[in-house]
UniProtKB/TrEMBL annotation:
Cofactor (UniProt): Mg(2+); Mn(2+)
Feature type site, description Important for catalysis: 141, 192
Encoding gene per record: leuB
Binding positions (Mg(2+)): 224, 248, 252
Quaternary structure annotation from Swiss-Prot or TrEMBL: Homodimer.
Protein name in the entry: 3-isopropylmalate dehydrogenase
Length: 357
C-alpha cells in the first residue's frame, strides 16, 4: 500500500534541508520500490505569512491523514513579537499535541569520521551512541494553569505548571524500556525527585514499569547531575528517559557531544508508531538561504521514518550507510568542517548522499 508523507519544510533553513531529504525519498521511490506519495504544506512562520496562522487547518488535516510527517524547522526573529498563539513554535507544539506524539526519540551518535569535530576530547566521545527518549506532550510545556497575572500588590508574575499523570509517565517509560531492550539494555531515568513532587511520582511509575523488564538495568539520576555526567563521561549512558523540559535541554547538550547539532535526527511517535520526523536543530535564520546548512540531520530523519513508521529497515540502513560513505569521502558542510576535509554546500551534500545510495 502506498504511504502518504506530509512534507512541512517550514522556516529558515527548513526548506533547504527538507529539499535534500525529499531527493533521497524520491530516489528510494524510483529505484528501490518504496511506495510513497508526498504532499507539501506550509507550517510555522511560512504558514503565518500565507494564512495568518502557524498551523492552518489544511496543514493539520494533511498531517493527520498522512502516515508520517517530515518537518524541516520553524521560527525566525521576524515572528518573535507575534502573540504567543501565533508564533511558529506553536505549530510544532500543536502538531505534537494534536497527533499525540508523546515519545520523542533523539539519538546522539558520534560518527567516527567526525570525532575531531566535537568540542570534547576524542577519548571522551569516541564511539558515543546514546538515545534520549523525551516525553513530548506533557509537563510544563502544556500544563495548566499558565500565564502572567497581576498580584495583589500590583506586581506581575509569570507562572506555569509542571504536571505528569501516571499514564503519561508509564507509556513513555515503556517506549524507553523497549528501546533499551534492542540496545545495550541500560536505562537511566532522569528527573528532579529530590525537589519536585512531579518527579517523585515519575520515579515511582518508572520503577513499577521496570518490573516488566527484568533484563534492563535501570538507574535514576537527578537532572543536574545528568547534565554534568553527559559532558564528563557520556559513554556511561545507553538510553535516557526524561520529561519534556529536561529532555529539551539534555538533548541539545547531547547533540553537541557529537560535534554538530546538524547531524542529529529525531522521531516523535504516537502509540501506533505514526511519526513526525525532524532534524533536532532549529531554523538557523543566520544562515538561511545561503545554501550552506547541513542536510544530514534531515536525511537521517528520513532513515528513522523508514525504520519506525514505514517498516523499511533495509532502506533505513542504506541511507545511514550512504551518509557514512559521504563522510568517508571527506565531504563536510561548514558546521562539521575541519582542516583537511572538503567544504560543500547543502545541495552538494544532498546530491552526494543520493549518489552514494
Ligand atoms: C525542540 C525545540 C522546541 C521545543 C521549540 C522550537 C518549541 O527546542 O524540539 O527541542 O522546545 O521542544
Ligand atoms: Mg530544543
Amino acid at each position: 500500500m502506498t504511504k502518504k508523507i506530509a512534507v512541512l519544510p517550514g522556516d529558515g533553513i527548513g526548506p533547504e534541508v527538507t529539499a535534500e531529504a525529499v531527493k533521497v525519498l524520491e530516489r528510494l521511490r524510483r529505484d528501490f520500490g518504496l511506495k510513497i506519495e508526498l504532499e507539501t504544506a506550509p507550517v510555522g512562520g511560512a504558514a503565518y505569512d500565507l494564512h495568518k496562522h502557524p498551523l492552518p487547518d489544511s496543514t493539520l488535516t494533511l498531517a493527520r491523514a498522512a502516515d508520517a510527517v517530515l518537518l524541516g524547522a520553524v521560527g525566525g526573529p521576524q515572528y518573535d513579537t507575534l502573540p504567543r498563539a501565533l508564533r511558529p513554535e506553536k505549530a510544532l507544539l500543536g502538531l505534537r499535541a494534536e497527533l499525540k506524539l508523546f515519545a520523542n526519540l533523539r539519538p546522539a551518535i558520534l560518527y567516527p569520521q567526525l570525532a575531531s569535530a566535537s568540542t570534547l576530547r576524542p577519548e571522551v566521545v569516541a564511539g558515543l551512541d546514546l538515545l534520549i527518549v523525551r516525553e513530548l506532550t506533557g509537563d510544563i510545556y502544556f500544563g495548566e494553569p499558565r500565564g502572567v497575572r497581576v498580584r495583589a500588590d500590583g506586581e506581575r508574575e509569570g507562572f506555569n505548571t509542571m504536571v505528569y499523570a501516571e499514564h503519561e509517565v508509564e507509556r513513555v517509560a515503556r517506549v524507553a524500556f523497549d528501546a533499551a531492550r534492542k540496545r545495550r539494555k541500560k536505562l537511566c531515568s532522569v528527573e528532579k525527585a529530590n525537589v519536585l513532587e512531579t518527579s517523585g511520582l515519575w520515579r515511582e511509575v518508572v520503577i513499577r514499569v521496570a518490573k516488566d523488564y527484568p533484563e534492563i538495568e535501570l538507574s535514576h539520576m537527578y537532572v543536574d547531575n545528568a547534565a554534568m555526567q553527559l559532558v564528563r563521561a557520556p559513554k556511561q549512558f545507553d538510553v535516557i528517559v526524561t520529561g519534556n523540559l529536561f529532555g529539551d535541554i539534555l538533548s541539545d547538550e547531547a547533540a553537541m557531544l557529537t560535534g554538530s547539532i546538524g547531524m542529529l535526527p529525531s522521531a516523535s511517535l504516537d502509540a501506533a508508531d505514526k511519526g513526525m520526523y525532524e532534524p533536532i536543530h532549529g531554523s538557523a535564520p543566520d544562515i538561511a538561504g545561503k545554501g550552506i546548512a547541513n542536510p544530514l540531520a534531515t536525511i537521517l530523519s528520513v532513515a528513522m521514518m523508514l525504520r519506525y513508521t514505514l517498516n523499511a529497515p533495509v532502506l533505513a540502513d542504506k541511507i545511514e550507510q550512504a551518509v557514512s560513505k559521504v563522510l568517508d569521502r571527506g565531504l563536510r558542510t561548514g558546521d562539521i568542517y575541519t582542516e583537511g576535509t572538503k567544504k560543500v554546500g547543502t545541495k552538494e551534500m544532498g546530491d552526494a548522499v543520493v549518489t552514494a545510495l
